[in-house]
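Person: Please comment on this record:
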Amino acid sequence: MNIAEIKQKISDIDFKTLYCLNEGEETQYTKRFQGLLDGFYETFGKCDNIRLFSAPGRTEIGGNHTDHQHGAILAGSLNLDVIAAVRLNGTNEVCIKSEGFPKDTVSLDDLERSEAEYGQASGLIRGVLACFKNKGYKLCGFDAYTTSNVLKGSGMSSSAAFEILTATIVNGLFANNEVSFDEMAKIGQYAENVYFGKPCGLLDQMAVAAGGIISVDFADNENPIVEKLNFDFSKTGYALCIIDTGADHANLTDEYAAITVEMKAVAQYFGKDFLNDVPKDEFIKNLKNVREAVGNDRAVMRAMHYFNETERAKKEALALKKGDFDEFLRLVNESGRSSYMYLQNVYAVKEPKSQAVSLALALCDELLSGKGAFRVHGGGFAGTVQAFVPSDMLENFKAGIENVFGEGMCHILSIRNAGGVEIKL
């Protein structure tokens, strides 16, 4: 196909299904992908053999800070994504240019980990390529141009989306798409842990790779139990809103790390590495002794949150499977209260005057007046709040949120059913 034919093919793509669109919203997506092509041509030159790929952001629906203790989560992929235009380049180098960032070039002759690439996109790319090579796939060089509308620092996992996008490209080009979504998730996690230098669980990558709403039990962390739920969120009469509070994530590493450290301290009282290996009744029975041994009441409350939250995530999945959305909303609100009261990840203790997430939760409570549901979203301390808003309240809800936090800070989103995919022309 020549360039004009490719752009015409783009206008024929079923964006309505992929992005859960209302009638008439397809035009902006056609323009977005045609703009992606223009970016590719400006970077790498014009060519005919272009392929398109996409990987979504994700939203954590249930299981706030449970995955790192081998608990259960509920998550969904969003209709925000990272997209790529790709072609084989006939060399032994992989070149990926992300809009707004310098080009990253990785030689297929050098896929060893380098600490110099910690925190760099090139580290993620190299890690993904190394995984596929170690699995025995023959790799060749390719060029890719990417652009993203996944909000950074929002709990939507833009880094996992990039990892899974890269893995989806390699899977499509060199593995005939035979690598399963759960293996793709592990590849993304490995790249982030080992090549990017950031410890993380498997939640983000699994939600991005699978698509739709998934329930995951991490009791066996190497072989998590993943179930895709057959639930059509679009028919509930509710909108999924992610509220960006505009709060800064900088200098919060210690706050996030403390949650893991404190939960582990409780687990270690029982001779275990993770709370999931500790029976809840044993924890409750020994609560007085745990409190004295750990010497940290917050750690005890965070453990209490874990035990209830991991069970709650399973109950939320069951409610959706039964089609009981009212029970699901009740559990979401319960999760939000637990995160606020016991997990305590709504503001940083060292910055008690900066409570944007707490304020957003209070505003949701006021605007929803007992309807719908709301909770802290993702890691917490700063960032975003998730709300399920009745459709007939959406306009006023959005206006009320943006009156406080600014225009464009209340994002109305949908759950998309596709994870990492190639978009066929």
